[in-house]
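Task: sequence in, structure out. Protein: OpgC domain-containing protein.
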Amino acid sequence: MNANRSRRDHRLDFWRGLALAMIFIDHIPGNIFENVTLRNFGVSDNAEVFVFLSGFSASIAYFSKYMGGNPVFASVRVWQRTGKLYLAHIVTIMGAVALFFGAAIWFADPHWTKVNGLDLLLRDPVHALVGLSTLTFQVGYFNILPLYIVLLAATPLLMWIASRNLWTALALSLILYVAGKTFGWSLPNVPSEGYWFFDPIAWQLLFTIGFVAGTLYKAGQPVPFHRLAYAGAVAVLVAGFAIQRFSLYPADDALPLPTWLFTFDKNGLALPRLLHALALIYVVANLPFDWIDRKIMQSGATNPLARMGRHSLPVFCTGSLLAVVGQVLERESGGGLAVDVTLVGVGLLIHVGLAMWLDLWKEITAPRDAAKGATAGVPGAAASRST
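Result:
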């Protein structure tokens, strides 16, 4: 990680774009391509990568401004971004509901009124709509943005603590994680039963680790490479692959210990799952193929995955809605190779096409300094402005 920090690091965008692509594929259950995504090779998946990179990006985007003497400005920018995430989530979830219910009407298939917890909207629409607006009622496959909204909303507090001592921020995050596990803290689903699919009290630790890693990287002190640590991380990945491949997951009562210490629960980000995700990130970040890094940096402006990662929010929301279409067509068509290739292929092309359009739109709407310079060069222009 020795890129020139005066330029955008396209590697971050690349890995975020790759995670978005795999999330889209995983959100269309039953397609053949879901057999080659990250979750098939270990006990963690793209969600952990997404949250870690979110913390990493938050540090790079906001913490340097915070430490540069503009804490209020940096905090307001964070909350402004949080507001955009909330609006994007509400628009996306309502679009998803319309697509699911529309599929129920079009195909005369009541299955689409019950899938992913949607039946609550029919049984108790008043409370369900209140729950949707307060993020406490979450439709299946649409529950990672509420987690991100909560984590980002709390980022100014994280920055305030980190500005005093970065390691204190990490220690307090770990204490909160352990306390949440010990006392059973979690955010409830309302009006439905149970708790959030992604428990923010647990997942904040991974976000904070990403934040700390981003802060160190920005300061030119990235997490160092160590051969023993790397070998240990590789061993963790091999063990994770074996556990997943041969279904060696332990039962909840396998050991006389709290389950979060030895199971791989995703909702509460059990400790072994967290360690597997960190091992994966450490191994990938220290891959010995420097030419891959150079290729990604050199093609950063045009690399399809980096383009997607650069516009992660609109690409993610669009991909989530495309995944709904994919779920419907996968079931109603009966699936098959041709259907899977078409759904995933067209969906990913739309991902890339949207990112390309957003790049073009940004270029079109960017302020033009050249025009100002041209005006300044016109004889008499300065005199006309002064009269």
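The chain has a mean pLDDT of 91.
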